[in-house]
Design brief:
The structure is a single chain. The chain has 143 residues and is α+β, with helices and mostly antiparallel strands. It has a single domain, classed as VC0802-like, CATH 3.30.2130. Helix content is 29%, strand content 30%. Helix 2 runs antiparallel to helix 3. The protein is globular, with a radius of gyration of 19 Å. It starts with 6 loop residues before the first helix and ends in a 17-residue tail after the last helix.
Length: 143
C-alpha cells in the first residue's frame, strides 16, 4: 500500500529550508546615533564613509536611531577599518564585535512558513549561540 501525498503536504515541503550557509570572519559595526532621532542622510553618511575606505557591507539591520552592519574581514587591513570607525564615531557611538559569523537559511517561499525561524533560534539557543543581528530578505527564485 502506497502513501498519500496531498497538495498541502507539498506546500509544507516547499517552505522548508533546503540549505544553510555559514560565512565566518564577520565584524559587526553598531552605530547608535548621537541625536534623539536620526537626521536626514544619517544612513547615507554611514555608507559613504565605509565606501570611501573600500569596506563592503554584507548585511544590515536598522532602527530609528541605530544601524548595525556586518562586514567581511577577508583581505581587510586594520588601517581602513580603524579610520572608518573613527569617522563613524563623529555621528554616534560605535561598538565593534569581531569573530562573528552569518548563518543563512535558504528555501523557497519560507517567508510564508510559520515556525521556521523559531526552530532555528531554538537550535542555536540549545547550543549556546548568541544572536547579534537578525535580518530577513528575499532572493530571486533559483528553483
Amino acid at each position: 500500500m502506497g502513501s498519500l501525498t496531498t497538495v498541502a503536504d507539498e506546500k509544507i515541503k516547499s517552505k522548508r529550508p533546503i540549505a544553510a550557509t555559514l560565512k565566518e570572519g564577520i565584524i559587526v559595526l553598531n552605530v547608535i546615533s548621537n541625536r534623539k532621532s536620526v537626521s536626514h542622510g544619517f544612513f547615507e553618511k554611514m555608507f559613504s564613509i565605509l565606501d570611501a575606505h573600500g569596506i563592503v557591507v554584507d548585511l544590515i539591520s536598522t532602527s530609528q536611531v541605530q544601524i548595525s552592519m556586518a562586514i567581511t574581514n577577508n583581505d581587510m587591513t586594520a588601517n581602513p577599518l580603524e579610520r572608518a570607525i573613527s569617522e563613524l564615531s563623529l555621528y554616534g557611538d560605535v561598538d565593534v564585535s569581531r569573530n562573528l559569523a552569518i548563518l543563512s537559511l535558504v528555501g523557497k517561499d519560507m517567508k510564508r512558513s510559520v515556525g521556521v525561524a523559531s526552530k532555528m533560534f531554538n537550535i542555536l539557543a540549545q547550543n549556546s549561540v548568541n544572536i547579534h543581528m537578525i535580518s530577513q530578505g528575499t532572493i530571486c527564485p533559483l528553483f
